[in-house]
Amino acid sequence: MNQRGFTLLEVLIAMALFSLLGLACYQLLERVLHSEQRIDHHDRQLRQLQRALGIFERDLTQAIGQPLSDDPSRRQALIGRADGLRLVRGGWSNPLAQPRSEVLEVAYRWQDDAWVREYRSPPDRDQSVTASHSQRLLEGVTLKRLSYVDAQGQPHPAWPALGAALSLPQAIDIEFDAPGYPGLRRVILLPGSQVRDDE
């Protein structure tokens, strides 16, 4: 009986083909894993951005015309500059009925490439000051513009414009660069604002 096996050349060709196939599979798997890591990174950046903008918008849409506790004139409900703002907001839920106000003083500032939110309860009737809490909303942020829109639709670099007592701007116009999302712009209407139709 004549048994015939593979020749050395056939074995070498088969090994080379399997090696190339294994290398191609490895490279494909590596690309898929790298793509998945990039997608996860972008997804994490987007979630952080959405969270920061959601908190910012929620604070602004809950703004009330109550004076800031450390304003000696008792005439400013919102103090805004080109690099940050301070306001009083209502609607701070109190589901456990704790002995505290439903009003919160909130400040936003951009410092060291970070978007920072500081908040505290206003002083109680007995004037005991509560501790301030700081929260870094987003890292790697560059503020390009922060302006305050008046009732005539005119932007101002600071607020209050023309010393109006306890007035809120109609809107806050913010433009900034965030990681993975350059050139973002949001215009957030404040309570009581009127939408202008200039057409």
Structure description:
The structure is a single chain. The chain is an alpha+beta fold. It has a domain at 54-189. The chain is built from 1 helix and 9 strands. The chain has one helix spanning 8-61, and strands at residues 78-81, 84-89, 104-111, 114-120, 133-139, 142-149, 155-156, 171-178, 181-189. The strands form 2 sheets. The protein has a 5-stranded antiparallel sheet with strand order 1-2-3-4-5, with helices on one face. Strand 3 and strand 4 (114-120) form a beta hairpin. The chain is elongated.
Short description:
The protein has 199 residues and is α+β, with helices and mostly antiparallel strands.
Secondary-structure element sequence? HEEEEEEEEE
User: Could you describe the largest sheet, including whether it forms a barrel?
Assistant: 5 strands, antiparallel
Morphology: elongated
Gyration radius (Cα, Å) is 29 Å
Strand content: 25-35%
Distance between the termini: 98 Å
* Uncertain stretches of 5 or more adjacent residues: none
Number of helices: 1
Strands of the widest sheet, in order across it, are 1-2-3-4-5
- Fraction of residues in helix: 25-40%
Instruction: Give the integer mean of the pLDDT values.
Output: 84
- Helix and strand composition category: alpha+beta
Total strand segments: 9
Pfam family, one: T2SSJ
Family: Belongs to the GSP J family.
Main location: membrane
GO cellular component, one term: plasma membrane
